[in-house]
Amino acid sequence: MTVQGKKLLDDEKALEILNKIMESDLADCYKNAIARYADERGELNPDDVFAIASDVAFCNPAEDIPEIARELVTLAFLDEISNENPDAMLNLGSLFYTGRIGEQSYAEAVKYYKMAVEYGNMIASENLGYCYYYGRDVEIDYKTAYHYFIKPALSGRLESLYKIGDMYAKGLYVEKDENFAFSLYEKAYQGIDEFCDVVGDICLRMGNCFYYGTGCERDVEAALFFYQRSELYYYSQLKNGDFYKKKMLEDVIKKIDEIRIELKSEIAPEEFID
What we know:
This protein is mainly α. It is built from 13 helices and no strands. The termini are far apart.
């Protein structure tokens, strides 16, 4: 944390790092993230350092933050955390969670997420739900996970909504209710818009419900539709560095292959025309 009244990243140091990045051979996305804040003379305002650091940190999620930029990002975020900025808390926690800051630490992620939650940050609450759901540097605790998921779900966060659905589907902390789980998945699917980044996960759950007849009548054609849409989005997420989707993509492809075999078995051989 910063010493009260003193910034960890002073204006001179910040501008020095920014100029080094602009003069480096880093990918254009990093330079563009900085250049958009320059005035007509090409000069940067030190007051924009947190915004610039945020853009630099997340402009290329498929790779770790380049070493030359890590000091800028870390210190800029810590300065804002000392100013009680919950977005900085969330950002730094997310970078520790994925390891893109140069160090992977669920413990640090949990610490910063909890700080952000104190200021009402719904994404941080959702992220903490994952930590307790899967036991990432904390004991698996479904009651606490539910607590952290429910507020974002009620506020319209689709990811938390389908995670609550998972808990009802499996009977984790809550009483098992597959019909209610399916209704939550449907609600999440209906909430998808052009900015939604969890389409693949929602479609996977819809596909599973139709494939196994969980909370609805079994319908393999409907399952195929949702699995194929999920497959498409998982490819996109993997290209953007979301390695957590690798196994899920493999599972989706396996299910699609199984459905194709099942559907073909229902068609007489003479109906296959070259």
